[in-house]
Amino acid sequence: MMSASTRSRNPAGHAGLLGNLLALLNALAGFFESRFALLAEESKVAAVQLLILVSCVVFALLLCALGYVFLITGAVVGLAHLIGISWPWIALAAAVVHFIIAMVLLLVARSRITKPLFRATLTELKKDREWLKNLDATNPSRS
Predict the structure, then answer these.
(1) Buried b (16+ CB within 10 A) or exposed e, 57-84
(2) 4, pLDDT greater than 70
């Protein structure tokens, strides 16, 4: 008889509010623990993939730079042989041309840096600040 009255009061057989809260917290902790473990495992794989990607890009840039050096060297030597001028003079001319191109690129970059970025956003933020100042001026009771 005793079990019948207990079962009628608690038909689902739950341990009560405290038991349910502890079970919920335990389930949430298990859920987050498994998600963090998955995130940690995937972040290791992503870090390895990113390291491989960065190393490939750096190595490709290095090979491109070396290829460019060999191309310029070959052009200087070939032009010196073709024209019959000493190669140091042609190498000096190639260096001057490279410095001129670099200077032009730096001037273009400098002109781009002086222009403000996000001009429309800054204008809208300025309008918002003015609106807020005017709102405070018209509504002195707000603080």
Answers:
(1) eeeeeeeeeeeeeeeeeeebeeebeeee
(2) no
Per-residue H/E/C for 9-27: HCCCCCCCHHHHHHHHHHH
pLDDT tens, residue by residue, 95-134: 999 999 999 999 999 988 887 778 888 888 899 899 888 8
Helix or strand (DSSP H, E) at 141: none
Q: In 3D, which of 115, 116, 114, 138 has the Cα closest to residue 125?
A: 116
The pTM of this model reads: 0.52
- Decide: 88 and 94 in contact? Cβ < 8 Å: no
Yes or no: say if 49 and 55 are a contact pair by the CB < 8 Å rule: no
| Gap between the Cα atoms of 91 and 99, Å rounded | 12
Tens of pLDDT, residue by residue over 51-91, are 999 999 999 999 999 999 999 999 999 999 999 999 999 99
Phi, psi at 107, each rounded to 5°: -65, -40
In angstroms, what CA-CA distances link 104 with 30, 66, 91, 99, 127? 60, 23, 20, 9, 37
Give the Cα separation of 112 and 114 in Å (integer): 6
